[in-house]
Design brief:
The chain is built from 12 helices and 27 strands. Strands 4-3-2-1-6-7-8-9-5 form a 9-stranded antiparallel beta sheet. A 9-stranded antiparallel beta sheet has the order 13-12-11-10-15-16-17-18-14. It has a 7-stranded antiparallel beta sheet with strand order 21-20-19-23-24-25-26, with helices on both faces. With 451 residues, the chain is α+β, with helices and mostly antiparallel strands.
Length: 451
């Protein structure tokens, strides 16, 4: 097969794939939704349900929707799992009806107890904001154990359905209540305070940026902070130990090992999480925890404490050599044994003169070098800098100087000692540890020729 024919077939294949993704898949999804709507035999809409009552093997549960949140009100009043209850409403719309066991004509005289429907194994009631409630009754397994019996409000039938639908509603209390250890919206956090065995850290949001205000005042790493907030938001409790705090000192809440205080926009009262002390005699490294806005004492696994063991280096902004790259027209690379000078011509090209006087011909990546200096990431901020590191910067392996006309914009100084690369700069005199790849990262690629 010729190259031309192969190319034509490739174009046709791409066109077909594009047609499927742009037209066929959305159409098929819409048809599937229409089929599900047609087969739906109970009218339950997510936005219209105000209360859900569930009776199953684990007990009797009642939940109310308050605003956008679900709250369990029986057997106790606690926050409910939003995903769990919204999912029940969606599942109710697609419960399949199989073979009819009892039709409308015989339903009135049928003893529903024979099918495990009076009382039912699982009963689900959906109460709308207005109008009549809708319910589902799931009964016993059929003799073959391949399904179970089902009836519903207004159906006047007993049919077969899959046991997986009954199982979806046969949920214990732990699955129904909100088990998030610390519930909040990371996008609304404006200030965060972290108290850990390793130190105290506090950060504030400034638009898309974050800034440390404890233990030092400096720009913070937004990605690391958002990652940490995401971990806190997603962490689940292992169990609820007590529904109310009797004596805070029992759990170490009077002097917690970990404390997180989050200030949210438009919320005067901050959210506070406490991890008191380790659960005694446990092999899984569990912790007692509580959120100050709730009464419960819960138990969390070690992962939450590990997430909060934050070294200061992790929170600090690591692109510390950033500078204004606009108009940089001269770059000087000073090695121990040679100097390379780069100057920008009027046409935007660069003239590069090597230390031995040779002029580089052809394309160079000086602009890329400028970007790489700007984007260089610190590997570590050492607490202490020994004499060998300081001496290495007094006799540097490389000094990169960047100029805008006669103004020195940035100067990065790199030294090596004890198998570590150290750096400091015009805009940042603090000595930092650089990545092992720093020299190759700052290498300029060019094709050199004689003058």
């Amino acid at each position: 097969m010729g190259i031309k024919i192969t190319a034509i077939l490739a174009v046709l294949l791409l066109g077909l794939v594009g047609f499927v993704f742009l037209f066929e898949r959305p159409r098929m999804a819409e048809e599937q939704r229409e089929i599900e709507a047609k087969n739906a035999f109970i009218e339950v809409q997510r936005h219209g349900v105000a209360r859900l009552t569930l009776t199953n093997d684990y007990g009797h549960f009642v939940a109310e929707k308050r605003g956008n949140e679900w709250v369990l009100i029986a057997p106790m009043e606690v926050p409910a799992d939003w995903i769990e209850f919204e999912g029940m409403i969606e599942i109710a719309q697609i419960v399949e009806r199989g073979r009819v066991v009892v039709d409308e004509g015989d339903y009135a005289g049928t003893n529903l107890a024979d099918f495990g429907l009076d009382p039912p194994v699982v009963e689900v009631r959906f109460e709308p904001v207005s109008g009549d409630p809708v319910w589902l009754f799931f009964g016993d397994d059929i003799p073959s154990k391949q399904g179970c019996y089902l009836t519903w409000s207004g159906g006047d039938k007993v049919v077969l359905t899959k046991k997986q639908y009954r199982a979806r509603f046969n949920r214990p209390l732990m699955a129904l209540r909100d088990t998030r250890a610390f519930s909040f919206d990371p996008d609304l956090v404006s200030r965060a305070y972290f108290q850990t065995p390793g130190g105290v850290y506090e950060v504030v949001r400034d638009g898309l940026k974050w800034h440390l205000i404890q233990p030092i005042k400096e720009r913070a790493d937004a990605r690391e902070i958002l990652t940490l907030l995401g971990q806190l938001k997603d962490e689940r409790v292992a169990s609820f130990y007590k529904e109310a705090v009797d004596d805070p000192t029992i759990y170490g809440f009077d002097n917690p090992d970990y404390k997180v205080v989050l200030h949210l926009k438009d919320n005067e009262v901050p959210n506070t999480l406490l991890l008191g002390r380790r659960v005694p005699n446990d092999r899984q490294k569990l912790w007692y925890g509580r959120v100050m806005s709730r009464s419960q004492v819960f138990i969390v696994e070690q992962l939450l404490a590990e997430a909060l063991d934050i070294p200061l280096t992790r929170l600090r902004y690591k692109r510390v050599f950033e500078f204004d790259r606009t108009g940089v027209d001269r770059v000087r690379l000073a090695y121990r044994d040679s100097v390379v000078n780069c100057a920008k011509n009027d046409d935007g090209s660069w003239q590069v003169v090597m230390g031995d006087g040779r002029v580089v011909e052809g394309d160079t990546d000086v602009e890329d070098l400028i970007d790489r200096v700007h984007n260089l990431v610190v590997a570590e901020f050492p607490d202490q800098v020994d004499k060998s590191a300081v001496d290495s910067l007094n006799d540097p392996v490389l000094t990169v100087s960047l100029w805008r006309r006669e103004t020195l914009v940035q100067e990065l100084i790199i030294g090596q000692a004890n198998n570590f690369w150290y750096g400091t700069a015009k805009t940042r005199r603090e000595v930092v540890v650089l990545p092992h790849s720093v020299m190759s990262w700052l290498q300029v690629n060019w094709t050199s020729g004689a003058i």
